[in-house]
User: What shape does this take?
Amino acid sequence: MHPADRPIPEIAAALRRGELRVTELIEAHLDRIAARNPALNAMVGIGAKAALDAAVTADRELREGQDKGPLHGIPFAVKDLIDMEGAVNSCGSRRFAGQVARHDAAVIARLRAAGAIPIGRAATYEFALTGPSFDAAYPPAVNPWSADHITGGSSSGSASAVAGGLVRLALGTDTGGSVRSPAAYCGITGLKPTWGLVPMQGVFPLSPSLDHLGAMAASVAEAALMLDAMAPECGASAALGMGLKGLRIGYARDWFAHDPEAAPDLIAAMDDAASTLSMLGARIALIPMPDYALAEAAGAVILHAEALETHREGLRDQFDLYGRQPRQSLAAGAGLTPEDVARAKVAGQRIAQDIDTALADHDAIIAPTTLAPAPPVAAFMGEETVWTAMRTLPFNLTGHPALSLPIGFSGGLPLGMQIVGAKHAEPTICRIGAGFEAATDHSAQRPYFA
Assistant: This one.
């Protein structure tokens, strides 16, 4: 089996037994990227020399007993929005083409300290705004399940790289669902932690009130390992394998089942997932949720207002270097007043209180990540901005942690479920996700490559 297809705990054990060297592991990943990335456009920059140099160091450290933890020697991809010293961080835009970072982002420094090795940059929608677009710094990443359907965004390349078997781990950012929706559309795991848990220093902002860094991985356990390195105090892996017996899970079925955008296959898959969790020993109860339209509207007001402030100077001085879709998205902030933003933040606080109330009686909430599988690329080739139906933005607004993982397929395309927990309850949502994953084969499914 190719090393990129083996779970990280297996690879970590092989490295420590001396059956595999880190240099061999990195070389195997570089070969896989060279073979598959031309069809995927997932990676937009490969740091081969730096990764191999780090591998030599990791091999020496492991031989000498300097074990930095379960990610020591493991490669990961970095969304092209996050600074890596000496590497380009273009944010997917012609505006920043060729811009080289002088320092590591705080999260990169933490992952390096845990022994993980950045192997290259993964594609993003331009400045983490809308997409896919066709006039940015590089072509959009391709969904490994179907080149005719989008990956979701904005962590598009990170999702494509993991689903396509280029890496087991990738960093993403999530402001309105940008870790979770691509994870759902590409059939992988996406973990958005509690707001503020992972430092954002060195990450180009979209909307600071809503921005999160997240882990994208081939499995729940691997996403938890990555988050543990990003936020060592979190202990996301601490409860894996404990089972689900006695856990109380609220099922937000009415939040989506009557929405005309909800695909029938998605509704059936969510009901099946709830049944599986029940058979695993969890107590499932239908629960009400805050008005989704209000939550999305409030989040959108904050996002557009803050994004415009971030880009006001750039739009003034380098307007022509922005793509059409980012310009359209940023223009939405121009009509907003401070009063609009203030009202949106008050609404967000009320919604957060409602979620907290629901979680006071439940260990987690389950809901879909998106209401349908990935839409076709063709829908995004016109002049109008297309908004895909998701259930993600409320948890950026409230700051609660949310885990997306696969729950089945519709028309050969993946579907995803979110598990949402109380703030700093990452161990609980990962415990539930890992239990569900072990009882099903959804996360084991991978797209075919000749």
Remarks:
- The first helix runs from residue 8 to 17.
- The chain has a mean pLDDT of 97.
